[in-house]
Amino acid sequence: MPAVFVDRDGTLNHERRYLRRVADLRLVAGAADAVRALAAAGFAVVVVTNQSGVARGLVRMSTLAAIHDAIVRRLARLGARLTAIYVCPHHPTAGTPPLRRRCRCRKPRPGLVERAVRELDLDLGRSYCVGDSAADLGLAAATRTRAVLVRTGHGRATEAELTLGAPVAHVAANFRAAADWIIGDAQNVSAERRAASPRRRAPIERARTSPARRRRRQPWR
Ligand SMILES: [Mg+2]
Ligand SMILES: [Zn+2]
Question: Active-site residue 9, yes or no?
Answer without folding.
Answer: yes
